[in-house]
Design goal:
Layout: E1 9-15, E2 26-32, E3 35-42, E4 45-54, E5 60-68, E6 73-84, E7 90-98, E8 105-113
Antiparallel strand pairs: 1-2, 1-8, 2-3, 3-4, 4-5, 5-6, 6-7, 7-8
Length: 114
């Protein structure tokens, strides 16, 4: 599945308890070739960035870092599997793990906002 994530906007629809991303968080994706990056903010997150790769199957492998509303810098890694919804929007099924704080892992789903 070849997906170009450039200029797509996403928000969270579900997240594990130890995650900080919520429905108030908005992600702004960019892509050149197979390099992906995004900025995000909202809810418990003042500002964040992610940087990664888009694989040939459309899946994403990235690292993220953000400053939360408690002024703590948090970092982690994530693997996302895309799903194309009937209306053409993208849903990403994510498996993530903190590389800071309690090092816990979780799962989340983000969906494209049009």
């Amino acid at each position: 599945m070849k997906i170009n994530y450039n200029n797509r906007k996403f928000t969270s629809v579900s997240n594990s308890g130890s995650g900080e991303v919520s429905g108030e968080t908005t992600f702004y994706y960019s892509q050149t070739d197979n390099v992906l990056w995004a900025t995000y903010s909202g809810g418990a997150i003042k500002f964040g960035t992610l940087t990664g790769l888009v694989h040939s199957d459309g899946s994403l492998d990235f690292r993220y870092s953000h400053v939360n509303t408690e002024d703590i810098i948090m970092t982690g890694r994530c693997l996302s599997t895309p799903e194309v919804l009937p209306d053409g929007r993208i849903r990403l099924h994510e498996k993530w793990q903190w590389t800071s704080g309690d090092m816990s892992a979780g799962e989340s789903i983000v969906e494209e906002i049009q």
